[in-house]
Design a protein that fits this description.
By secondary structure, the chain is α+β, with helices and mostly antiparallel strands. It has one domain: 4-Layer Sandwich (Glutamine Phosphoribosylpyrophosphate, subunit 1, domain 1). It is 28% helix and 23% strand. It has eight helices and 14 strands. The strands form two sheets. It has a nine-stranded mixed beta sheet. Strands 8-9-10-11-14 form a five-stranded mixed beta sheet, with helices on one face. A hairpin with a 5-residue loop joins strand 3 and strand 4. Helix 2 packs antiparallel against helix 3 and helix 7 crosses helix 8. The longest helix is centred in the C-terminal third of the chain and has 15 residues. It binds N-hydroxy-L-asparagine (SD4). The site of N-hydroxy-L-asparagine has 14 residues, from strand 9.
């Protein structure tokens, strides 16, 4: 996927990936009654199929929570995306390990880290949220929980990612790179017609990371945070910098204090610049949505964009940036 390409606004009626079983199949116009919020889906990078899936569901009356889960699932199943779900790049030992989290409008949250045998980490995270008294399960415990809840056991290493890993082994070079394939995590926020916000974030993490390394994406407050009274935020890029700033939580709290989503994202990236003298060596990007449907987006380096689905239209929008 060429995420740097600016995709012009497209009418997407019929262009989406189709409805998943169980979703409502009614004309969007049916739901456009007065007093209803105009649904919005936004997501990091340029994953049009994911935002179209979620956006169409929202137009048809789905909840933000269902839409956000099914939206990011599209990328988890996309074998060409080498940083999310099946087909994700492995760690230095050759293990593909997934991190994901999800947050519901009522403030509930679920997460999994170091999940090894299931494409849909976000759905396992949702089960953790709904079926356990906990927020996060890790490693073998997360895999065991997934097995017990009927998730199909899969090998997440595809022939293509195994081949790329073999190539990488030749030099074993380990350095963060900006705006290349190791930065494609999907973080998504959905606002439904009832005005409720839900969010999800899912990744295989940095390519060829240390075995056991977990980034920001499954950490509530870092890769994702929302407060249904205020809005939500998601992050992508160098997880260590996002964790150290608790970036998504910070953005929501700044919005609570009256900052716009854009101002909140900019303040947070500026703080990361101050905290990290090597900020030129990595990318971080944030995306925020408030209860009024206002969007903010800011990143360190040029090259990051996000997708927005609203009013039957899916648009890829280049983000403003610091450098
Ligand atoms: C991580 N934030 O594991 C993730 C990586 C990422 O696009 O965003 N990739 O640090």
């Amino acid at each position: 996927m060429k995420r740097r390409n600016f995709i012009k606004a497209t009418g997407i009626a019929g262009a989406g990936a189709g409805l998943l079983p169980g979703t409502l199949n009614l004309n969007a116009a049916t739901f456009r009654k007065e007093g209803k919020t105009t649904p919005i889906c936004i997501a990091t990078w340029n994953f049009p199929n994911a935002s179209i899936r979620a956006g169409e569901m929202l137009e048809q009356g789905a909840t933000a929570l269902d839409a956000v889960e099914q939206g990011v699932m599209v990328e988890e199943a996309n074998l060409k995306n080498t940083t999310v779900g099946k087909g994700g790049a492995p760690d230095r030992e050759g293990n593909v390990t997934l991190d994901a989290c999800i947050m519901a409008p009522n403030g509930d949250a679920g997460a999994v880290v170091y999940l090894k045998n299931n494409t849909h980490a976000v759905s396992v995270a949702r089960k953790v949220m709904e079926e356990t008294p906990h927020v996060m399960l890790a490693g073998e415990g997360a895999d065991q929980f997934a097995r017990q809840h009927g998730f199909e056991q899969e090998n997440l290493l595809t022939p293509e990612s195994a081949k790329a890993y073999k190539e990488w082994l030749k030099n074993k070079e380990y350095k963060p790179l900006i705006n290349i394939e190791n930065h494609d995590t999907i973080g998504m926020l959905c606002l439904d017609e009832k005005g409720d916000i839900a969010g999800a974030c899912t990744t295989s993490g940095l390519s060829y990371k240390m075995n056991g390394r977990v980034g920001d994406s499954p950490i509530i407050g870092a890769g994702l945070f929302l407060d249904n009274e205020i809005g939500g935020a998601v992050g992508t890029g160098m997880g260590e910098a996002i964790m150290k700033s608790v970036g998504s939580f910070l953005i929501v709290e700044l919005m609570r204090q009256g900052k716009s989503p854009q101002e909140a994202c900019e303040i947070t990236v500026n703080r990361i610049v101050k905290q990290n003298p090597n900020y030129k060596d990595f990318q971080v990007a944030f995306l925020a949505l408030d209860k009024n449907g206002e969007i903010g987006s800011y990143c360190l380096h040029k090259g990051y964009s996000y997708v927005k689905y609203k009013d039957n239209k899916n648009t890829n929008i280049p983000s403003q940036y610091y450098l």
